[in-house]
Specification:
Elements (H helix, E strand, L loop, with lengths): L2 E3 L3 H39 L4 E2 L7 H4 L3 E8 L5 E8 L2 E12 L5 E10 L17 E8 L21 E2 L4 H7 L4 E8 L19 H25 L1 E3 L2 H8 L1
Parallel strand pairs: 2-3, 4-8, 6-9
Antiparallel strand pairs: 1-10, 3-5, 3-7, 4-5, 5-6, 7-9
Length: 247
């Protein structure tokens, strides 16, 4: 018996929706990989150039982003933030973000001083040592990503400062802190003596292979969906159909 391609309505509609969606997800992952590749190239160019001094006045993000910067000021712990769920050599902990009051003004610069271990548990955040006195900070200025997956909205800060955050939300910080902040976070140099912790910063293009792997999976799912749809839509021709074909 010969088979005839006779798709039914519901599977056809389902495939018409699923396949473009799967292809979109695959191309989106490839786009994310390209974005990281471009950002890393820009990072490498700027970070190896001349060191930029952070001024005690508000500057634009593009004036500082990806440049190696230098700043002087005093650490302040009242509005310090611990970024949760940061892993270092298989251990859970936090990234310590400390505002630096820039010398000669009221503007603060947020400094990521590195990874600090979890401590007893998440109900009891660790006590982080912070030195007093004038500090000279050097590192690479970055703008934290706003494209972060969140299971729930963060708690409002109108009831007091929240020490532990799930990610560094610059807009939320600037809207709550009672002082102006530069629009970047400085990744403290591993060699810096400005009281840092474990500092092994990942390259921006470190996840390119992961994005490419996800893209391959989405494309394979799209292809598998089409193959399954094709074979499920094949129907064996009935004898009457074959007679009609002969006649």
């Amino acid at each position: 018996m010969q088979g005839r391609f006779r798709p039914t309505l519901f599977p056809s509609v389902l495939v018409a929706v699923m396949v473009p969606a799967l292809l979109y997800l695959g191309y989106w992952q490839l786009q994310r990989a390209d974005e990281k590749r471009v950002l890393q190239a820009e990072y490498d160019t700027r970070a190896t150039g001349a060191v930029v001094k952070v001024e005690p006045r508000l500057q634009r993000a593009e004036q500082l982003q990806f440049y190696r910067v230098i700043a002087q000021g005093h650490y302040e712990t009242e509005y310090q933030v611990l970024i949760d769920n940061r892993i270092h050599h298989g251990r859970a902990g936090y990234h310590v973000i400390t505002p630096l009051k820039l010398q000669g003004g009221d503007v603060r610069l947020l400094v990521n001083r590195g990874w600090f271990p979890l401590g007893e548990d998440r109900q009891h955040p660790p006590v982080v040592d912070t030195p007093e006195g004038l500090q000279e900070v050097t590192g690479v200025a970055t703008v934290p990503s706003e494209n972060v997956f969140m299971l729930a909205k963060p708690e409002p800060l109108n009831r007091g400062w929240q020490l532990v955050w799930q990610h560094m939300d610059m807009e939320r910080y600037a809207a709550t802190a009672p002082f102006p902040i530069q629009p970047v976070v400085v990744l403290l140099d591993p060699e810096s003596q400005a009281s840092g912790f474990a500092r092994e910063w990942n390259r921006l293009d470190a996840g390119i292979a992961v994005h490419q792997g996800y893209a391959f999976q989405w494309f394979m799912l799209a292809g598998a969906t089409l193959v399954i749809y094709f074979f499920m839509s094949l129907r064996r021709a009935r004898p009457s159909d074959q007679e009609n074909l002969k006649s």
